[in-house]
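WARN  no MSA supplied for this record, continuing single-sequence
INFO  ligand: zinc ion
INFO  echoing inputs
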Amino acid sequence: MTDSPRIHLGALMRSTLDDAQAEGHLDHLQYEQGGETHTLRFAAPAPFEVEVNTLGGSEMYLQGSFEPVLIMECARCLRDVEVPMEVQLGTLMRYEPSAEQPYLEEAESGEEVLVFGDPDLDLSAYLAETTLLNAPLSVLHDEACKGLCQVCGHDLNEGPCEHMAQVPVEEIDDELGTPSGSLHAKQNPFASLADLKLPED
Ligand SMILES: [Zn+2]
Ligand SMILES: [Zn+2]
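INFO  complex generated
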């Protein structure tokens, strides 16, 4: 198991070697975004392999593959969902001694360039970003997921709770202020039951 995916490019950059390789398994990936550390979780050790070839000067090309089973949250009930992925890796790279952290930059051609300043290159950020770009925006653990009760947070897949006018978590923002009995009633599988119990004025 590898804590962080690294590839050693010193020999490549000194032209002692024509290419460099690295492979391993990752049980998670940490990356920085907006000054915070985030973690991508994997259901099983995720295999990666990369190969870097020199293009002359400070430029290189990285290719390889990464096959994580990414753990995402169901958009409605927040339980874990396993998303198997096969990510093809391929990016231009450029060595810039002043780069403190590796980062992706868009070249004039529109191609992405991985800029790095440490020949002992940590691929965490690159792998995390590429994985997120290839991951679905949201997933459901089941197409018929009933979501959580908006009032008490009860998982409605496990049965109804006493609150009958709930909406799926992902729709709360849109539906705030909607009078109960209109939109809610149509979406709520228990609405007809609730209607029966309501006293008529
Ligand atoms: Zn769900
Ligand atoms: Zn409830």
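The first helix runs from residue 10 to 13.
INFO  checksum written, moving to next record
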